[in-house]
Amino acid sequence: MRMDKTQRGWARASLAILAISLAVYGFYAFESPQGPRGGSSVGLAFGVIGFAFMIFAALLGARKRVPTWRIGRAQAWMRGHLWLGFLALPLLLFHGGLHFGGTLTRVLMWLLIITVFSGVFGAALQHYVPRVMTSDVPLETIYD
């Protein structure tokens, strides 16, 4: 999926969600007497929303495997997978108060970080490689 002007709506919405989340987390962390915790109502809200974004990102794979599911357009699913999957990381970090907690939580957070950054790297490659291939290897490119 190319990063072009068709991504602007998702990018703006994602930035707005991130900005609102940062403001809510900042206010919550400043006003909370015990500090930010995942068990508080705000922490649980961050956790539920971050988990919902992860589930939506994972449902793209299920949609691809079941050809009879034709819910929405594939481009919208891909854009949602990219942007909501990226937003899941900061929301889940806010859920935990920017702390990784115990061993299992630490392992799961590092796996999420690796997954998100590998997705960002893959999106960058999808944007860059086709342009390089069409300019550097013009005889090997099929235009049909």
Topology:
Layout: H1 8-31, H2 41-65, H3 74-95, H4 103-136
Explain what the structure shows.
There is one protein chain. 73% of the residues lie in helices and 0% in strands. With 144 residues, it is mainly α. It has one domain (5-140). The chain is elongated. The mean pLDDT is 84.
- Taken together, the total number of domains comes to 1
Shape: elongated
Q: Please mark out the parts with pLDDT under 50 across 5 or more consecutive residues, or reply none.
A: none
How does the major sheet shape up?
none
In short:
The protein has 144 residues and is an all-alpha fold.
What descriptive keywords fit this protein?
single chain, 144 residues, mainly alpha, elongated
